[in-house]
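Researcher: Hi, I'm a grad student and pretty new to this. My advisor asked me to get structures for two proteins we've been looking at. I'm not sure of the right format, so I'll just paste the first sequence and hope you can take it from there.
Model: That works fine. Here's the first sequence with its structure tokens right after it:
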Amino acid sequence: MAIKKQYLKSKPICKVTFTVPAEEAKKVAVVGDFNNWNPKGSTLRKLKNGTFKGTFELPKENTYEFRYLVDGAYMNDSEADRFQWNDYAGTENAVLEV
């Protein structure tokens, strides 16, 4: 898994690219604070090598909790900036700081 951040000088946003190696998966989405935990519109595209990838524009100077939804199962990104306990989910969520 990988997270790449590209800060834009002209706008107060950061382009964040999420990459998830999941050759056997049919569908991968990234859900979090930035999209109200809704997988609609946040599905990652499957590449020929079996990796799923997607880029999202997020407002800078924010912190977001997120997880991947891989064929209906939640997963954290091991490359996240940090992890934070979430009482609602009853587990740790990955945290992205942009």
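Researcher: Oh nice, that was easy. Here's the second one.
Model: And its structure:
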Amino acid sequence: MLTGKQKRFLRAEANTMKPIFQVGKTGVNDNMITQIDEALEKRELIKVSILQNCLEDKHTVAEQLSSGVQAEVVQVIGNNIILYKESEENKHIQLP
């Protein structure tokens, strides 16, 4: 679990990031979870955008993604989800 201080730090880091994945009307699928897991291994922190035509609630999508890739939901803001997962080989974010 992330502490409040760590979440604030990660939100600040993600502030300038652009979303690299989009969840559309098909919702979350296995292929998307695999790709997000690989991206988290490389970057540790990613932003996922939820499109207007997504039929599911943004908090449900965040829960599906985080449980699918065993990552922490840092924040759900607007139509964006910020995910964090500590990398095995590419560790470059030092949490406070």
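Researcher: Is there anything I should tell my advisor about the second?
Model: You could mention this: Residues 30 and 68 are 8 Å apart (CA to CA).
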